[in-house]
Amino acid sequence: MHPLARVPDVRTPPPIVRAMLDLAGVTPDDVVYDLGSGDGRIVIAAAREFGARGVGIEIDPSLVAQSRATIRRLGLDERVRIVEQDLLEADLREGTVVNH
To answer: Helix 41-50 vs helix 14-24: angle between axes, to the nearest 10 degrees?
Structure first.
């Protein structure tokens, strides 16, 4: 098991997610990256509430599957994607807002 896979999954409450995205000044022109995206809530909120595009980087396959299912259910496939990858190897060049 990769060492990062042992990091506890701590979910950010929705009001905090909203406050973080507000504080970052996210707009529809942004690409929000979330490193260790868990269930994808930050990149999903960036797309739904701010019109941004989002990319989640997550190493846990079960969380990747959960995130992708939520994205499909919400019809956000064109705006949000989840990459199953070690965040230390992620290419962040496209990102304009990065959460870690």
So the answer is: 60
Instruction: List the beta strands (DSSP E) in 3-96.
Output: 31-35, 53-58, 80-84
Q: What is the spatial distance between Cα 35 and Cα 55, in angstroms, rounded to a whole number?
A: 9
Dihedral of CA 42/97/18/28: which sign?
negative
- Give Cβ neighbours of residue 76 (< 8 Å, ≥ 6 apart): 44, 47, 48
Continuous segment of H or E residues that includes residue 62:
helix 61-73
Query: pLDDT per residue over 10-66, tens digit each?
Result: 789 999 999 999 999 999 999 999 999 999 999 999 999 999 999 999 999 999 999
* Strand ranges of the sheet holding 80-84, from the earlier edge strand across to the other edge: 80-84, 53-58, 31-35, 97-99
Query: What one-character DSSP code corresponds to residue 6?
Result: G
